[in-house]
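Morning. Coffee machine broken again, so started the prediction first thing and wrote up yesterday's gels while waiting. Chain of 189 residues, entered below exactly as on the submission form.
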Amino acid sequence: MSAPATSSLSGQAAAAFAAYRSGETGRMSELVSLLTPALWAVARSAGLDSAKAEDVVQSAWEALVRKADTIDDPQAVFAWLLTTTRRAAWRAAGARREEPLVEDSPAPTPTPETIVLDEDRGLRLWRHVKALSPRCQALIRVIAFAPTPDYAAISAALGMPVGSIGPTRGRCLAALRAALADDPAWSLS
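Came back before lunch.
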């Protein structure tokens, strides 16, 4: 595996995270300084006040320290933190509600067959993503976990002009669709 590119925010984060996991514990401070503003923006965009947003960002960093060894690819750390923060913010925002808008009904329990098929489908999909260009891989990793992509944040994270994100995204997704269409084992059903 080649060394991570350090020109983008995502590349700088990957380099700091890889160094942290290699034993340079001081690099975690660099990672925190680098990514906290983006995580803060994600938490605040969920409608949290400053105190709740601070708690959510702190919990994301704690989760990273606990689970650092489970993140195989340092290039994924930024997307992992964004996703962790977003989910924690949603939970915190949901906890503020006094009454649920809709009664929760229990989700149907998936069958063992469904679980195996879903896991296989996910592995196959990400195997095809890994076959794409590094630029497409990075972009898809970031947009895959964002319900509404923030192009300014993506631009900062990937070092890509805002105006090229949409067209690049379209080309990357078209390449992924073509790869999946050529895979006889791929199926959405």
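The domain at 1-100 is CATH 1.10.1740 (Rna Polymerase Sigma Factor; Chain: A). Going to sketch it on the whiteboard this afternoon.
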